[in-house]
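Narrative of activities, Objective 1.

The group set out to show that a structural description can be obtained from nothing but a protein's sequence at a throughput compatible with the screening campaign. Below is one input-output pair from the validation batch, recorded exactly as produced.
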Amino acid sequence: MDWKMLVIDIFLYIFEAWVFNFYAKLISLSYKKFWIRVLGIAAGYAVLLVFYEMHRLPLIALSIILINSLLLFSLFSINFQTALFHSCILLGVMVSSEAITMPFVALLTEQSLNFQPQADVYVINVVISKLVYFIIALIIAFLFAKKERNQKNFKPYWIMLILPISGIIILTIFAKVIIQYTLSTELYFFAIGIAFLVLLSTVIVFYAFEVAQKESAELSDLRAIQQKQEIDQKYFEIVDQSNKEMQILAHDTKNHLMQICNMENMESVQKYIDSIYPSLDKFSSIGISQNKILDLIISKYIKLCEKNHLQFSVNVKTANLHYIEDADLSTILNNLLDNSMEAAEQSQEKRISFSLYSRSKRYDALVLENSCDIPPIVEGSKLKTTKPEKRLHGLGLKSVLKVVEKYSGMYDWEYNEEQKLFKTVIAFPKSVI
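Output recorded for this entry:
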């Protein structure tokens, strides 16, 4: 046995094992921990290497299907029938890549198909076949993964395929140089080293991207947890402040009741109750929706409207959009309410009405009305901003429309010129729950 060829075969099988792991992770939704997968795949591909060194092709093909199926079944939580299907795909891709590489390289190096390449050219051919195997396997894995997890973004992977494709081009040019010139022993090993360096760089880049993507996902989870904690903290601060104000109000209520008892007629009583009613009504909006982020936003705009002398009525007793993510709900409400406040401030009536309600069992409706003395500018069916810096504005509504589309909702608006009232309606289907 040639020890040099054995070393080369070991490196090639390590690369194949990595391709298998990469492929399996893309098509699987759950898998074993890293070191369990490493040990299992290493053991499986060590057996395949032994069969390969025995040079028995039928046994090699059968063992590849069987061992890959067992690894997919045991390490990646894929049922055996599906595992067998993907193992056959990988075998077909491997055989095809090896079958097309030799004619491909021969064509590009202007050699006949019967040409017997020297050892260093043979190694380069084999490395090219493994890169082709990786590219095809990756594309197939993308297609299956997109079907199972259409929310996952694979664009970065498509871009990174430039690396193995560039490696194939470089190695093909290198093979042509080797064929035309006789190389020394040192250059022979250099040629082999370059070929395996291309494989290694492919593994390192894709592995580094996986690690970066995993860290990014963990960071997003941490941010989501932090955001939830901040929401909880702000919510409890508002509730605590409300409780303190309620305690003060309860104390004052005793005086109010004593004052009412001393009044002589109902007209005086009614006037007195009307005067203290606004201070009682503002507490009704705290915690009424049982959706913390919604209550926070409502409380925020109640305070802002009070500060800007705007009438703000709220009705969220029959729906709270709990199935919409906090960040998305914040995007919708903050942008819409900011626009409503800006328009209402410039109007005579200075009022805003916000409602959430269930319309039958099919969908929830968000209705926002605000006084608006200036008719909106419309181009086609789209609203245009009236602000002077148009490039810097109008993005809020685009963000709202993007979120509405995400939840398969419907957005509509209308302007009543007679009443000088702008109305926004968004319907969210309950099927998204």
